Amino acid sequence: MDTRDLLLHPVRLRIVHAMAGGRTRTTSDLCGRLPDVPKTTLYRHVGLLTEAGVLEVAEEQRVHGAVERRYRLRHERTLIDADAAAAMSPDDHRSGFASALAALHAEFNAYLDRDGADPFADSVGYRQGTLWLNDEELAEVIDVLRQLFTSMGANSAAGRRPYLLSPILFPVEEPDGREGGTTS
Q: How far is CA 83 from the centre of its chain?
C-alpha cells in the first residue's frame, strides 16, 4: 500500500492525530481515545500503520501473560511527498478530502462527547473566509502555516494540550464583474 492510500483513510488519520506530539500509546490507550472505532478495526489499522513503518514499537512489557506494546509515531513517515501529491488525480483528491473531512468530523464529535466539553472556553472555531491572493501572497500564507506547524507541532511538554488545526485551502472561482475585494 502506498503512503497516500495508507494515510488518506479516516481511521488511520485519527490514529496519526492521536499519536502526534511524541506520545507513546498502547492499542488499549488508542481504543480509549477513539471509542467510536470498533476494537478489531483499530487493531487492524494499527497493524497496517506498523507494517508500513508509520508506527513503531517503542517498548514491550508483559501484562497479565500477554505482551503489551507501546507505539510511537514516526513523523517523517506521515508525509505525502510532492511527487505523490502531484500525481494524484482529481478523484484521488476527492477521496483524500472526504477522508480528511470524515476524520475531522469524528474528532469533533469525540470532543463534544467528552464530559465537560466547553467549545467557548476551549476557543473552538470553525470559520471560513475568502482571501484574495496573488501567487506570491499564496506562497507566503503557505510558508507561514508550514512554519507554524513545524514550530508548534512538537510542543508536547507538560501544561499544554493538543489542538487539532485543519486549514483547508483551495481556489474558488471569482464572481463575474468582480470590483475589488475584501478579506474575511
A: 20
> Are 28 and 20 within 8 A, CB to CB?
no
pTM: 0.77
Domains and CATH numbers, the chain: 3-128 (1.10.10.10)
CA 125 to chain centre: 17
Give me the torsion for CA of 159, 148, 163, 43, rounded to 10°: -110
| 65-69, 108-112, 140-144, 147-151: which is most confident | 140-144
The three-class DSSP label of residue 162 is coil
Percent of the chain residues past pLDDT 90, beyond the cut: 54
Distance between CA atoms of residues 25 and 18, nearest Å: 9
Give the DSSP letter of residue 9.
Answer: S
Nearest to 77 by CA among 168, 2, 14, 27: 2
Element (H, E) at 49: helix 39-51
Helix, strand, or coil here: 55? Answer: strand
